[in-house]
Amino acid sequence: MLILNKTAGVFSKPSKRNMYEFLRSFHFHPGKRFLHKLVLGIETSCDDTAAAVVDETGNVLGEAIHSQTEVHLKTGGIIPPVAQQLHRENIQRIVQEALSASKVSPSELSAIATTIKPGLALSLGVGLSFSLQLVDQLKKPFIPIHHMEAHALTIRLTNKVEFPFLVLLISGGHCLLALVRGVSDFLLLGKSLDIAPGDMLDKVARRLSLIKHPECSTMSGGKAIEHLAKQGNRLHFDFKPPMQHAKNCDFSFSGLRHIIDKMIMQKEKEEGIEKGQILSSAADIAAAVQHTVACHIAKRTHRAILFCKQRDLFCQSNAVLVVSGGVASNLHIRKALEIVTDATQCTLLCPPPRLCTDNGVMIA
Questions:
Q1: Helix or strand run (H / E) with residue 271
Q2: Beta bridge partners of 67
Q3: What span, in angstroms and rounded, lies between the C-alpha atoms of 125 and 115?
Q4: DSSP label at 328?
Q5: How many CB atoms lie within 10 A of CB 251?
Q6: What distances in angstroms separate CA 64 from CA 51, 108, 111, 254, 283, one per listed residue?
Q7: Which stretches of the chain are assigned E, i.e. beta strand?
Q8: Torsion of CA 89, 91, 97, 98, to 10 degrees
Q9: Which of 258, 259, 283, 342 fits as disulfide partner to 231, beta carbons 3.0 to 4.6 Å?
Q10: How many CB atoms lie within 10 A of CB 152?
């Protein structure tokens, strides 16, 4: 707690007066009793301000989220100080909405759980500062949460999954394969050596200027690629999946991105258009990029499954692969993983889309 207080001290805290007014805004229910312990979860690791109240049996009593996607689309990517300011502007409202939806007053909480790592330092600081003020005022226990562990364990909220199981976390900021042996017991099998798949898809979408495409103007980069790929022919471009001969379970996406950038530049010259204009072959490029990323992720995951089977690391009754993170909602990538799990007699499980992306429920 001392370390966390020092960390939070780097960031501006809400004033005690503001926190007092925030707590006074709730209507207390002296006659009401909750049978189970209640945890407030707060998530501000990147560009979503989220909060939720969950009881110890896994019931979600209330949740709220504010997405910054629209703002970051206009700036061409996440700018940390902008994300920090938006978190500051919204965190009190979001926590209030989650508590109000759950019909729980702050005094009835058993603990407050907050993401402390990994993520954008400026964004994390907002959630941490707010939480520590709340903890101080309410005299409640504080539970520091590792963002990736929360993603990995979310599936146990919606499905009955026994330890151990394999988890693939794929998002805009992360890419890793790990064997989950317990609540805080993870064996890392592979990770991205450079950028995350979601980050790569966003960068390709930006390079293709898909925000100017009439069908994609309100979509994130990854969603725009997936949408446009349905209209394209992936066979018109031949991108080779990275690390085909690497005898491990690691990933790499930056080399592939550079190859795609060069090819886009070449196509712009061929079509005689300026950078920033939309290529006639944009849909074909999107389809080829998405398929190559899907193949790369599927092949590395296949290696991890074979490794776990060979070493007898899976649960005896059922081998399970859990896929979570924002990129897990891409249906083409999910289909590639289904082919792998069908071939290896594994069960593929994904949390519902709203729990794949950053949220307060997984923290609580």
A1: helix 254-271
A2: 48
A3: 10
A4: G
A5: 27
A6: 6, 18, 18, 35, 35
A7: 38-43, 48-55, 60-67, 111-117, 142-146, 165-170, 175-182, 185-191, 320-324, 347-349
A8: 160
A9: 283
A10: 23
Cα of first residue to Cα of last residue in the chain, in angstroms, is 18
Cβ pair 324, 151 in contact under 8 A = yes
Render each residue's pLDDT in the chain as its tens digit; 364 residues.
333 444 444 455 666 667 656 666 665 555 455 668 999 999 999 989 999 999 999 999 999 999 998 888 777 778 899 999 999 999 999 999 999 999 999 999 999 999 999 999 999 999 999 999 999 999 999 999 999 999 999 999 999 999 999 999 999 889 999 999 999 899 999 999 999 999 999 999 999 999 999 999 889 899 999 999 999 999 999 999 999 999 999 999 999 999 999 999 999 999 999 999 999 999 999 999 999 999 999 999 999 999 999 999 998 778 999 999 989 999 999 999 999 999 999 999 999 988 998 999 999 9
Backbone angles phi, psi at 277, to 5 degrees: -95, 155
Give counts: helices (H), strands (E), the chain.
14, 10
- The CB density around residue 133, as the number of other CB atoms within 10 Å, is 19
**Please, are residues 66 and 126 in contact by the beta-carbon 8 Å criterion?**
no
* Measured distance CA(206)–CA(75) in Å, rounded: 11
By the 8 A CB rule, do 205 and 192 touch?
no
In terms of Cβ atoms closer than 10 Å to its own Cβ (0-12, 13-18, 19+), residue 3 is exposed
